């Protein structure tokens, strides 16, 4: 992201004398409420007046009670609600100039010149048209005597910022739109439930998901559940698809599979533009193969339910960025949309994004399907390529004579099995023999190693924990035995899936290369731990699942506290010394404070937090939620914090404490962890294959360069390989955390949203980027 540094101004005075209106428009999406809440609270924090516009553009036209001033407390308890609390409506009136004239009059009368629109591409295009016509609308209103010259002068320019709220993820320029992750949660819950019944009866299930003309939901669902086939509008199947599909299903059954899963996007079509429906596919499979087949159309279930942790954090971060973009805008600034790319906040010109989104539709209409995939962005393209590799290619007849071993190290976490499955299948596709190592380095030392085949990992994507078995044992003291087994089993490359121990263990193996020639093989570490503390990666597999577990538990706790009133809950989270879970869960659950090791705190800070809660109890929001990372402070333990709050709150509030414990490591993986694990597993083996070619000398493998042992990690916007040795400098080995952690920068947002009087650093801001030039280079 291009960042620019500008002279800092006091962010609490940026909005003085300004008014901001926020509206949600088009189809509802989970996470819209988080965006509304953040926009309101950050707007108020900057000193601006903030208004709700109820019922979308219809409310803007109707005016009156539909445009109401928002207060801090009016957005309380909104975070965990699905849909949009301020309502959304399709509005015909706003499409004609007469309606926009009335809307402009309503805004001018209230002195509102900043509009934040949360919706899809249609809603955002409408907002841009409104902005373009603004001066003409004011001139007409003055001429008609509806507003004065003074009022027109005061409201001479309208600033527009968009946030994309749509479960379809069909807006180009952004990795994820608000609501997409939650919709995937709903879909995967159904897929998991359906696969259990399908296995019992050896059935074929066809699942139709939403997405309009975009295949994102269908594609990621297919990746996340290991579907046999997926139909998406961007890439219709080849001419002879009916025969190909039947061959694939029969082949899967002959390999011992008890079920088949086919995912269909609602906009799926054939090469000649005819719709492909779930009923059509059901008829084909039943008539041709005689399989017991069922079709399920998911419908509006996908829009409903509580937003996922990701959507709450996305909505909250976008709300902050939207307010800053509005208050920094000038009449020359084009209307922008705020978005996330990787973990970076970006601002993109709204109409450029809309144009690329239209280009996708044009490419599909003209039969340029490869272009359509590219225009959807890098993230979509990567998903499609990974899916094709893992589902559509039969293993080659010629073997590579390479043995690749795969193991889990450290504590178990959800998503590990997805990474193992993808790595095993990618290895088999490339002609390698795959070896499963049970129980980590301990198993490698004691020879708990066996071949693992394509069907050996069937159904692993959705399973929590570690199917291979995992231990925390490091290789340091058993290097002799490990080297013997590497030679005995003829292991040419190693995939290590795990947490901090996986990194340290990999490092010990690299350092042992001087003494043991057997260790001179390519190795790759895939970060997988709920703690998200592996150097070289912004995200670890498993952290998203743990975050959702904590967030849903906090929702229930807040509900309990809201019922009893005047109650404060102290909740202890996992993470070792890493405060990622406590911080992100604090943002997703709307906590009042989150104590972490990385941000030192003392008795004065604790006193400030207690006073803050005492003040809060005087408002209508009579409850509190405090998160504490398990190792945040050796002396200020969870019991100490609980006792302190209990004593200081006597007569005003009472306290309860919850230690969440190992429930954070369990459960079925979230769609993000399944998808992330699948992409990481597949990419790691492709990289190893490349390295093996480089290291092949005189008929054997010899890898002793630093770049032959890497961590595969997500860095800002891309998956990158970084040598284990190069990451040593950025690692605090005593506390098992990286020295630099990106998420610390968003901690102030949590504090501002909890009404703490702190300064938000606005010196480093997201510059406007361009989409048109980049075409396919959008996203991860």
TrEMBL record:
Positions with a binding annotation for ATP: 27, 90-91, 120-123
One MF annotation (Gene Ontology) recorded for this entry: metal ion binding
Subcellular location: Cytoplasm
Swiss-Prot/TrEMBL keywords: Acetylation, Allosteric enzyme, ATP-binding, Cytoplasm, Glycolysis, Glycoprotein, Hydroxylation, Kinase, Magnesium, Metal-binding, Nucleotide-binding, Phosphoprotein, Transferase
Region (N-terminal catalytic PFK domain 1): 1-392
Main subcellular location: cytoplasm
Positions bound to substrate: 166-168, 203, 210-212, 266, 294, 300-303
Binding positions for beta-D-fructose 2,6-bisphosphate per the UniProt entry: 472, 529-533, 567, 574-576, 630, 656, 662-665, 736
GO cellular component terms listed in the entry, alphabetical order: 6-phosphofructokinase complex; membrane
Cofactor: Mg(2+)
Pathway noted in the entry: Carbohydrate degradation; glycolysis; D-glyceraldehyde 3-phosphate and glycerone phosphate from D-glucose: step 3/4
E.C. numbers: 2.7.1.11
Positions bound to Mg(2+): 121
A single GO BP: fructose 6-phosphate metabolic process
KW Phosphoprotein (keyword) present: yes
Sequence segments annotated as region (C-terminal regulatory PFK domain 2): 403-780
Activity-regulation annotation: Allosterically activated by ADP, AMP, or fructose 2,6-bisphosphate, and allosterically inhibited by ATP or citrate.
Catalytic activity as recorded in UniProt: beta-D-fructose 6-phosphate + ATP = beta-D-fructose 1,6-bisphosphate + ADP + H(+)
Domain Phosphofructokinase stretches: 20-325, 403-688
UniProt xrefs under InterPro entries: 6-Pfructokinase_euk (IPR009161), ATP_PFK (IPR022953), PFK_vert-type (IPR041914), Phosphofructokinase_CS (IPR015912), Phosphofructokinase_dom (IPR000023), PKF_sf (IPR035966)
Domain of life: Eukaryota
Residues forming the catalytic site: 168 (proton acceptor)
Listed HAMAP family: Phosphofructokinase_I_E (MF_03184)
Family: Belongs to the phosphofructokinase type A (PFKA) family. ATP-dependent PFK group I subfamily. Eukaryotic two domain clade 'E' sub-subfamily. Belongs to the phosphofructokinase type A (PFKA) family. ATP-dependent PFK group I subfamily. Eukaryotic two domain clade "E" sub-subfamily.
Subunit structure as annotated in this protein's UniProt entry: Homo- and heterotetramers.
Descriptive protein name: ATP-dependent 6-phosphofructokinase
Organism: Xyrichtys novacula
């Amino acid at each position: 992201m291009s960042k620019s540094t500008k002279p800092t101004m006091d962010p609490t005075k940026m909005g003085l004398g300004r008014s901001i209106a926020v509206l949600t428009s088009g189809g509802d999406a989970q996470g819209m409420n988080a965006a509304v809440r953040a926009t309101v609270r950050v707007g108020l924090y900057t000193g601006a007046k903030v208004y709700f516009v109820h019922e979308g553009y219809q409310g803007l036209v109707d005016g009156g009670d539909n445009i109401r001033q928002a207060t801090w407390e009016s957005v309380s308890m909104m975070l965990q609600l699905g849909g949009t609390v301020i309502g959304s409506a399709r509005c015909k009136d706003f499409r004609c100039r007469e309606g926009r004239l009335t809307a402009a009059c309503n805004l001018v009368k209230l002195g509102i010149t900043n509009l934040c629109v949360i919706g899809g591409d249609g809603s955002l295009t409408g907002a841009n048209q409104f902005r373009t016509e603004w001066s003409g609308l004011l001139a007409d209103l003055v001429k008609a005597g509806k507003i004065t010259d003074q009022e027109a002068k005061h409201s001479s320019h309208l600033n527009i910022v968009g946030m994309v709220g749509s479960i379809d993820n069909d807006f180009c320029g952004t990795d994820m739109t608000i609501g997409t992750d939650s919709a995937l949660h709903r879909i995967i819950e159904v897929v998991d439930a359906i696969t259990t019944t399908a296995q019992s009866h050896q059935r074929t299930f066809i699942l139709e998901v939403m997405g309009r003309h975009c295949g994102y939901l269908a594609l990621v669902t297919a990746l996340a559940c290991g579907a046999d086939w997926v139909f998406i509008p961007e890439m219709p199947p080849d001419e002879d698809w009916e025969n190909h599909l039947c061959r694939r299903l029969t082949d899967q059954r002959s390999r011992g599979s008890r079920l088949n899963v086919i995912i269909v996007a609602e906009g799926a079509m054939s090469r000649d533009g005819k719709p492909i429906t779930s009923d059509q596919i059901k008829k084909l499979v039943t008539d041709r193969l005689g399989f017991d087949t069922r079709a399920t159309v998911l419908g509006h279930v996908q829009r409903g339910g509580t937003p996922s942790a990701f959507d709450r954090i996305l909505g909250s971060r976008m709300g902050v960025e939207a307010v800053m973009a509005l208050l920094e805008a000038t009449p020359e600034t084009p209307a922008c949309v705020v978005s996330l790319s990787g973990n970076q906040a970006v601002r993109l010109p709204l109409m450029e994004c809309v144009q690329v989104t239209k280009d996708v539709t044009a490419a599909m209409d003209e039969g340029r399907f490869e272009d359509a995939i590219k225009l959807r962005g890098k993230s979509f393209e990567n998903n499609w390529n990974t899916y094709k590799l893992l589902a559509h290619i039969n293993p080659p007849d010629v073997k590579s004579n390479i043995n690749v071993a795969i193991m889990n190290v450290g504590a178990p976490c959800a998503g590990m099995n997805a990474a193992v499955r993808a790595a095993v299948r990618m290895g088999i596709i490339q002609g390698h023999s795959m070896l499963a190592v049970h129980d980590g380095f301990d198993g490698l030392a004691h020879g708990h190693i066996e071949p693992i085949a394509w069907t050996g990992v069937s159904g692993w994507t959705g399973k929590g924990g570690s199917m291979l078995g995992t231990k925390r044992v490091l290789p340091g003291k058993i290097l002799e035995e490990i080297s013997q087994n590497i030679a005995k089993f003829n292991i040419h490359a190693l995939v290590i899936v795990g947490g901090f121990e996986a990194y340290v263990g990999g490092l010990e193996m690299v350092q042992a290369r001087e003494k043991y020639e057997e260790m001179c093989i390519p190795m790759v570490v895939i970060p997988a731990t709920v703690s998200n503390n592996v150097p070289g990666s912004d995200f670890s597999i498993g952290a998203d699942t743990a975050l959702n577990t904590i967030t849903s538990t906090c929702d229930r706790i807040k509900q309990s506290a809201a019922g009893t009133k005047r109650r404060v809950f102290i909740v202890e989270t996992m993470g070792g010394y890493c405060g990622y879970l406590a911080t992100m869960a604090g943002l997703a659950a709307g906590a009042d404070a989150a104590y972490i090791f990385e941000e030192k705190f003392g008795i004065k800070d604790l006193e400030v937090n207690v006073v803050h809660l005492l003040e809060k109890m005087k408002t209508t929001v009579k409850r509190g939620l405090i998160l504490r990372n398990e190792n945040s402070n050796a002396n200020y333990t969870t019991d100490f914090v609980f006792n302190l709050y209990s004593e200081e709150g006597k007569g005003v509030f009472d306290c309860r404490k919850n230690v969440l414990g190992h429930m954070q490591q369990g459960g079925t993986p979230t769609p993000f962890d399944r998808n992330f694990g699948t992409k990481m597993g597949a990419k790691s083996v492709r990289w190893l294959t490349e390295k093996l070619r480089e290291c092949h000398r005189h008929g054997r493998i010899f890898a002793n360069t630093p770049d032959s042992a890497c961590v595969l990690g997500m860095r800002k916007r891309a998956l990158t390989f970084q040598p284990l040795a190069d990451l040593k400098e950025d690692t605090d080995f005593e506390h098992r955390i990286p020295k630099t952690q990106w998420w610390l920068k968003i901690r102030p947002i949590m504090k501002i949203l909890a009404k703490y009087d702190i300064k938000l650093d606005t010196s480093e801001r997201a510059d406007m980027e361009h989409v048109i030039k980049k075409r396919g280079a959008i996203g991860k």
